[in-house]
Write a structure and sequence with these properties.
By secondary structure, the chain is mostly helical. 78% of the residues lie in helices and 0% in strands. The longest helix has 28 residues.
Length: 120
């Protein structure tokens, strides 16, 4: 008999994230809601800063987003935000563009998983 094993990358650490709010599920769902509502605006701001090649503002926005992501113990998304922040500090627009694409993908994955978790 064949057994299919499905590997699912841990997008965020549910247990650790819940521990940060003393296991208060309702509070955690509220934080998820705020993140899911606010993040598209932050990502749009990052896109605008990319278009304007405003490295200083981009660095600050990436830093802010990194802090929001950190609440969820989401290592891949956090690392992507950190990389964008670091690349903005260096001002290398080729690296910044690549880092932005990675961050965008990670944020979408995180948002989807958070919504799935909150609704589940």
């Amino acid at each position: 008999m064949d057994h299919e094993i499905e590997y699912t990358e841990m997008v965020f650490n549910k247990e650790e994230a819940l521990d940060r709010v003393d296991g208060d599920f309702e509070l955690f769902v509220d934080i998820i809601s705020i993140f899911v509502q606010d993040t598209p605006e932050k990502m749009a701001q990052i896109e605008k800063e990319l278009q304007q090649q405003d490295a200083e503002s981009l660095k600050r926005t990436a830093h802010s987003l990194k802090g929001s992501i950190g609440v969820f113990c989401a290592d891949s998304a956090y690392s992507a935000a950190l990389k964008l922040e670091s690349d903005a500090r260096e001002g290398d627009w080729e690296k910044i563009s690549t880092s932005y694409k990675q961050l965008d993908a990670e944020v979408k994955k995180l948002s989807d998983k958070l919504v799935e978790f909150a609704e589940g």
